[in-house]
Design goal:
- The protein has 283 residues and is an alpha+beta fold.
- α1 crosses α2.
- The longest helix is centred in the N-terminal third of the chain and has 19 residues.
- The two termini are 29 Å apart.
């Protein structure tokens, strides 16, 4: 701390500025930097969403060596991707958050064409589910309007980079561990239900449930061979496609589904008890 203070004192003297102004400039710049790169909590209508800063960086996307023989063809080829910085939710969007923004609870979210759909965990801190990709889009639009900030679903590349720990580069098969039960609720340990968010071990970025609990919608359209010609800088997914990407696995699926490179997809109007969302905010 002293070296920084002396640095600004010297800068003030060399530039002919009063020391107080140099120190004020230092504080101002630090405040701007902190505001741009610090984690924060979005507060809206009595509801809060915990957001984590993800520094931009470069990573290898796809079936990297730790994924082993479990990887599928659509996870290849492994390719280098560079992303700009962004924010991502520390947790999956909860049922309480969904109600505040959308005005509907998980019971109402069930497909109106079939009210016999089973509930698998109900409560404020449980992840929202029975969410279609189309509805996830509307959630992001409404949240953006409420806050004046740009919220959206993560791109597939943003999701995988965050699941791998961003610049922390966890290097693990699942998000934060090579042992699925440490970080995820999947078929082997979920008892057939979702669980409140944040109960398992986080990954290197401090993100919870990137593996397991519920699948998470991504912004991208799905194409099995997209990795063959994906742009290296901030890829947005293919221009065409009937399906939308979802990532992370769920409480009903096997451990394989929770791998950081595992890809899956559904039609955008699909509503299932194993699919929810996590949001990203653009800087």
């Amino acid at each position: 701390m002293k070296s920084k203070n002396w640095g600004w004192l010297l800068a003030g003297l060399l530039l002919g500025c009063p020391v107080s102004r140099a120190q004020e400039a230092a504080g101002s710049q630090a405040a701007v930097l902190s505001a741009d790169t610090a984690d924060y909590v979005e507060e809206v209508f009595g509801m809060s969403i915990d957001m984590v800063y993800v520094a931009g960086g470069t990573f290898e996307m796809g079936a990297t060596p730790e994924q082993g023989s479990d990887a599928y063809a659509d996870e290849t080829p492994v390719h280098t991707v560079t992303l700009d910085a962004y924010y991502i939710g520390r947790y999956e969007i909860t049922q309480a958050q969904w109600v505040v923004v959308m005005g509907r609870d998980v019971i109402q979210q069930r497909d109106a064409r079939d009210t016999s759909y089973t509930l698998h965990g109900v409560g404020a801190q449980y992840p929202a589910y029975y969410i279609s990709w189309d509805e996830a889009q509307r959630f992001c639009e409404k949240l953006s309007a409420m806050t004046g900030k740009k919220y959206r679903l993560p791109t597939e590349a943003e999701w995988e980079y965050a699941a791998r720990g961003g610049r922390h580069k966890d290097g693990t098969k699942y998000s934060g561990s090579n042992e699925i039960s440490e970080v995820a609720w999947v078929a082997r340990n979920s008892d057939g239900v979702t669980h409140p968010v944040g109960q398992k071990k986080p990954n290197g970025l401090g993100l919870y449930d990137m593996s397991g609990n519920v699948w998470e919608w991504c912004q991208d359209k799905y194409c099995a061979d997209y990795y063959s010609d994906s742009p290296s800088q901030n890829p947005q997914g293919p221009e065409d496609g009937s399906f939308r990407v979802k990532r992370g696995g769920s409480w009903r699926y096997l451990a394989n589904s929770g791998r950081v490179s595992r890809r899956y997809s559904n039609f955008p109007d699909t509503k299932r008890d194993v699919v929810g969302l996590r949001v990203v905010r653009e800087l």
